[in-house]
């Protein structure tokens, strides 16, 4: 647990000012009290939160510490984006689809000059040579990748023999896969000849003035950088990622991601029809929980009603209508982006302490009310 003195020093709350504020439905004082209580209850050392209403940020704040030295976490502190990267990547991909540079339903193999297994083991992407002898690689599409239905494990190193393999026919079911995201990145970079980091920089980070967001480490991040804390309470240094990983290399800040989330809810950067396709519940999800990724599908009575894969996000229906979400996690990070289409409302949480995740359901409900988000599907360890 954090010492009271360190907690008091680290609990500096930084608010971000926006040029055109809108009236918030939530009380900043109540959010502050809820977050303080959650941190004390969980022992979490740092947490940042943003609220979007009608497509505009109305609250962007940070609490606690960014490192073991007790420096305060601030709204412009650089934090690990983890798998929130996948949602921003999907947004970028949909722009390429609009420009007819990529077709969601064309086999990705058609964009490559050589058969996929012939590329062998590429450290920056994956070992495509493992797929030799299984022709299903010829049928994988961008839609399969973005709905996590390629048929692969999350990562090949999780397989008993550490080899990439198909577990089911592409498109048959949902099974979260970072390897699939890496394949689409490979096709964009080697098949289309695009620099993914550069595309995301100009299409997203520059467009929305996300000055402290990038797909790889920048030396200027060191001035205000968040380390993390594990579930055991040990401090972990920030990983200075040198490789672009569409599955999860993005560094960002709560202020920057709030800009992206708000712009997405306003429909900026995509045609209305393209955005609707991204959020369409394309593939019903039949698993009882997201992890382990290749677990057996649940019987119909145990499935989460209306839960489905969109493109880069997961969609659901609740008492307030359609919503979507995307999480991000590693040993010292817990992130979550939850939105409701009605009212164009969102909550974004970036925590540099994984212990904060157990407080996410209560914090989201305190801001958005009951959403219907299937919390135990996202966090299977939560008590019933």
CATH class value of the largest domain: Alpha Beta
Q: Which band does the percent of strand residues land in? A: 15-25%
Biggest sheet: strands side by side, in what order? 2-1-14-13-12-11-10-9
Radius of gyration, in Å, reads 20 Å
Average residue-wise pLDDT? 93
Describe the SSE topology.
Layout: H1 4-10, H2 28-42, E1 46-53, E2 56-64, E3 79-80, H3 84-98, E4 121-122, E5 126-127, H4 142-146, H5 178-191, H6 196-205, E6 228-229, E7 235-236, E8 251-252, H7 254-266, H8 272-279, E9 283-284, E10 308-309, E11 314-318, E12 321-330, E13 333-340, E14 345-351, H9 360-368, H10 375-378
Antiparallel strand pairs: 1-2, 1-14, 3-8, 4-5, 6-7, 9-10, 10-11, 11-12, 12-13, 13-14
Helix pairs in contact: 3-6
List keywords for this structure.
disordered N terminus; eight-stranded antiparallel β-sheet; two-stranded antiparallel ribbon; 10 helices; globular; alpha+beta; Beta-lactamase; 384 residues
What can you see in these coordinates?
There is one protein chain. This protein has 384 residues and is α+β, with helices and mostly antiparallel strands. It has two domains: 4-81 and 212-239 and 256-378, Beta-lactamase, CATH 3.40.710.10; 103-191, no CATH class. Helices cover 26% and strands 16% of the residues. It has ten helices and 14 strands. The strands form four sheets. It has an eight-stranded antiparallel β-sheet with strand order 2-1-14-13-12-11-10-9, with helices on both faces. A two-stranded antiparallel ribbon has the order 3-8. A two-stranded antiparallel sheet has the order 4-5. A hairpin with a 5-residue loop joins strand 6 (228-229) and strand 7. The longest helix has 15 residues, at 28-42. The protein is globular. The model is unreliable at 1-23 (pLDDT under 50).
């Amino acid at each position: 647990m954090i010492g009271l003195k360190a907690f008091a020093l680290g609990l500096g709350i930084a608010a971000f000012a926006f040029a055109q504020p809108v009236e918030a439905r939530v009380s900043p004082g109540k959010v502050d009290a809820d977050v303080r209580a959650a941190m004390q209850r969980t022992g979490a050392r740092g947490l940042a939160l943003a609220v979007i209403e009608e497509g505009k940020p109305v609250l962007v704040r940070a609490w606690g510490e960014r490192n073991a030295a007790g420096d305060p976490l601030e709204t412009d502190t650089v934090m690990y984006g983890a798998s929130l990267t996948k949602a921003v990547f999907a947004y970028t991909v949909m722009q390429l689809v609009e420009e007819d540079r990529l077709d969601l339903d064309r086999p990705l193999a058609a964009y490559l000059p050589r058969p996929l297994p012939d590329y062998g083991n590429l450290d920056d992407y994956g070992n495509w040579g493992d797929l030799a002898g299984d022709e299903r690689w010829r049928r994988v599409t961008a839609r399969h990748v973005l709905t996590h239905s390629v048929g692969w494990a999350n990562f090949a190193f999780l397989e008993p023999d550490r080899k990439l393999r198909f577990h089911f026919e592409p498109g048959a079911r949902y099974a979260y896969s970072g390897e699939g995201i890496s394949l689409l990145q490979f096709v964009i970079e080697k098949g289309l000849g695009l620099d993914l980091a550069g595309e995301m920089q100009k299409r997203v980070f520059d467009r929305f003035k996300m000055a402290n967001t990038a797909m790889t480490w920048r030396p200027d991040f060191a001035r205000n950088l968040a380390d993390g804390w594990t579930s055991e309470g040990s401090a972990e240094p920030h990983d200075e990622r040198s490789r672009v990983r569409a599955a999860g290399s993005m560094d960002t800040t709560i202020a920057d991601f709030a800009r992206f989330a708000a712009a997405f809810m306003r429909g900026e950067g995509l045609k209305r029809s393209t955005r609707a396709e991204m959020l369409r519940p394309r593939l019903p999800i039949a698993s009882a929980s997201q992890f382990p990724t290749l677990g057996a599908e649940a019987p119909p009575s145990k499935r989460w009603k209306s839960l489905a894969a969109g493109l880069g996000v997961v969609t659901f229906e609740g008492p307030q209508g359609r919503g979507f979400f995307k999480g991000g996690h590693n040993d010292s990070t817990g992130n979550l982006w939850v939105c409701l289409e009605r009212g164009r409302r969102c909550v974004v949480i970036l925590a540099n302490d994984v212990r904060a995740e157990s407080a996410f359901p209560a914090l989201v409900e305190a801001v958005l009310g009951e959403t219907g988000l299937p919390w135990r599907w996202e966090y299977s360890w939560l008590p019933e």
